[in-house]
Design brief:
By secondary structure, the chain is α+β, with helices and mostly antiparallel strands. The protein has two domains: 134 residues, 60s Ribosomal Protein L30, Chain: A (2-Layer Sandwich), CATH 3.30.1330; 149 residues, PurM-like C-terminal domain (Phosphoribosyl-aminoimidazole Synthetase, Chain A, domain 2, Alpha-Beta Complex), CATH 3.90.650.10. Helix content is 33%, strand content 23%. The strands form two sheets. A six-stranded mixed β-sheet has the order 6-8-5-9-7-10. The protein is globular, with a radius of gyration of 20 Å.
Length: 319
């Protein structure tokens, strides 16, 4: 007996991605033997023309979908376990597109040590819409949380900031780029190893998805404190630095554009050495960019000359 079209699609493209517990994607749910520790769950959706460009390579779309969710696990200090995925496909989506999409997922599954556990496939008259729910584990009581920063704590970030927002412009052809910035937009680098290394070191943490200033404000509100960010200390990639030198007006975009998926975290000044060691252990650069303060729940940004900057917006709005 031949398989219905949906099951044929699943068997061809997604069954090879399934791991232990997925029951060969033949049942309505997965069954997992849980490792010791606490379960961490997160979910993110991506919509064409909102979170990626429809003409982006399908393999990078699959990888970005997985990576933005892995970034949520990284921000909690969690180890990846598996994921559920829902794919809403416009009519006319070709098997070749799905082959490449699944190949991208397979590549990152191998790199980050997880597999698909199940999900759903549907058709849609609207844009390509993707949703992924990721599962991870963390030792009891060791999850990194957004709340916990204190006045006097140092503000740290991983990697470099601004590449994602600049990369979107580069991918659209409105910013000169050698391919690096567009690549950073299409393929963020979830800091999974760093998140785990920061357990017991960072007092509060989150990933930078909606913009550095806005996301720092989230940490401030939960802690009831303020923050001062030194724009001159924010780490930039060579590509971002070149773009900023060519057009200094890009600085607000770098600070508030989002799509960085770097870790933003608080640590006590006395733990600066431990933060640096965590960065070395995870092979990820970390940079101190400011301080949490006791002067309210606002985020002040000082330009390289020490003057307070006025930003047109703090970050990305989901509505």
């Amino acid at each position: 007996m031949s398989l219905p079209p949906e099951f044929s699609l699943i068997a061809r493209h997604f069954l090879p991605l399934a791991g232990e517990g997925a029951l060969a994607l033949s049942d309505d749910a997965a069954v997992l033997d849980m490792p010791a520790g606490q379960l961490v769950l997160a979910a993110d959706a991506m919509v064409a023309n909102v979170h990626f460009l429809p003409e982006d390579p399908p393999e990078t779309i699959g990888r970005k979908l997985l990576r933005v969710n892995l970034s949520d696990l990284a921000a909690m200090g969690a180890k990846p376990l598996g994921y559920l995925m829902t794919v809403a496909l416009p009519k006319g989506t070709t098997p070749e597109w799905l082959d490449a999409f699944a190949a991208g997922l397979a590549l990152d599954q191998a790199g980050y040590g997880l597999s698909v556990l199940g999900g759903d496939t549907v058709s849609t008259p609207g844009p390509l819409t993707l949703s992924l729910t990721i599962l991870g584990t963390v030792p009891p009581g060791q999850a990194l949380l957004r709340r916990g920063a204190r006045a006097g704590d140092e503000i740290w970030v991983s990697g470099t900031i601004g590449d994602g927002a600049l990369g979107l412009r580069a991918a659209r052809g409105t910013l000169a780029d050698d391919g690096f910035l567009a690549g950073r937009y299409r393929l963020p680098q979830p800091r999974v190893a760093l998140g785990q290394a920061l357990r017991g070191v960072a007092r509060a943490a989150m990933d930078v998805s909606d913009g550095l200033v806005q996301d720092c404000g989230h940490l401030c509100r939960l802690a009831g404190c303020g923050a001062t960010i030194e724009a001159g200390a924010v780490p930039l990639s060579p590509g971002a630095r070149a773009a900023l030198q060519a057009d200094p007006a890009l600085l607000p975009l770098i600070l508030s554009g989002g799509d960085d998926y770097e870790l933003l975290f608080a640590a006590a000044p006395a733990d600066a050495g431990r933060v640096a060691e965590a960065g070395r252990a995870a092979s990820t650069p970390v940079t101190r960019i400011g301080l949490f303060t006791d002067d309210g729940a606002d985020v002040r940004v000082l330009d390289p000359n020490g003057s307070e900057m006025s930003l047109p917006k703090g970050g990305w709005s989901h509505f």
